[in-house]
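Exercise 7b. Backbone tokens:
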């Protein structure tokens, strides 16, 4: 595995550090064989690099041999550490530091992992890779569950996948301060999706259900219509209610329909919820 740890000279400093730090931060460590602290400092920094999933590079400068770099950076003592970002030294420290202090020093200069995942999601979405985008944005949401930009992107993906039941509660929870143009566009898309999902067949069955004596038959038909309209939560709710009253309804067809539905829905939380409910009836 590439660890991005370099022994830097004056000849390759520009390429490794200045140019390299454009793609990700580079931690430059000025050390010397005469330094008592350096043998313990370097392994700690390398361990921190592994813990941060190689999110920054390490460039080691041997002050015993690289006098032009020592003079250029006016190094007075070793170890001296600089963090380079976008070609510039943006921070640094000298002398011995605890692992905790160095970790804080590193962390504040690394990209926010949630925002990096958000950017990846937006790229995937633009490329039409919607399922991959969904996987990535869900990872971002685990890291930053309260980030409203991530929530809006997740709602956008749910709408693109036709999972408007998942998009609706997300959009309803967006505070007014973050209800930007993207939010209003998604709300409009949601309203159109809901209108298209409310087919004449569904409307007729919902009306009939209110007054029907044989509600089970109407419920079963309505559940199938909900499924076809991708209103999966509504479909599962009706099927479960039906099976609670008659587990063998329609010679087991209702149970089979629910199992088939659970096998095709791409919503892990919803599937898990109704699998548990169904298994509690079965066993």
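Sequence design result:
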């Amino acid at each position: 595995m590439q660890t991005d740890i370099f022994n830097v000279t004056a000849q390759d400093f520009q390429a490794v550090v200045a140019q390299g730090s454009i793609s990700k931060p580079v931690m430059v460590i000025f050390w010397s064989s005469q330094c008592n602290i350096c043998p313990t400092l370097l392994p700690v920094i390398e361990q921190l690099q592994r813990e941060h999933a190689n999110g920054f590079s390490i460039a080691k400068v041997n002050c015993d041999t690289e006098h032009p770099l020592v003079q250029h950076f006016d190094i007075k003592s070793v170890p001296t550490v600089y963090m380079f970002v976008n070609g510039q030294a943006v921070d640094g420290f000298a002398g011995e530091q605890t692992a905790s202090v160095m970790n804080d020093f590193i962390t504040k200069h690394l990209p926010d992992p949630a925002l990096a995942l958000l950017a990846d999601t937006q790229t995937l979405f633009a490329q039409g890779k919607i399922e991959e985008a969904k996987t990535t944005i869900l990872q971002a949401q685990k890291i930053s569950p309260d980030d409203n930009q991530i929530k809006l992107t997740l709602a956008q993906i749910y709408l693109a996948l036709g999972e408007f039941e998942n998009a609706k509660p997300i959009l309803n929870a967006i505070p007014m301060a973050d209800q930007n143009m993207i939010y209003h566009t998604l709300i409009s898309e949601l309203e159109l999706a809901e209108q298209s999902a409310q087919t004449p067949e569904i409307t007729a069955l919902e009306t009939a259900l209110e007054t029907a004596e044989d509600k089970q038959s109407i419920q079963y038909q309505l559940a199938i219509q909900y499924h076809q309209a991708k209103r999966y939560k509504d479909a599962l709710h009706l099927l479960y209610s039906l099976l609670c009253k008659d587990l063998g309804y329609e010679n087991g067809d209702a149970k089979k329909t629910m199992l088939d539905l659970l096998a095709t829905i791409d919503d892990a939380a919803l599937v898990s919820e109704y699998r548990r409910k169904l298994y509690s009836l079965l066993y």
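Instructor comment: The chain has three domains: 5-107, 113-179, 200-282. The domain at 200-282 is CATH 1.25.40.10 (Serine Threonine Protein Phosphatase 5, Tetratricopeptide repeat).
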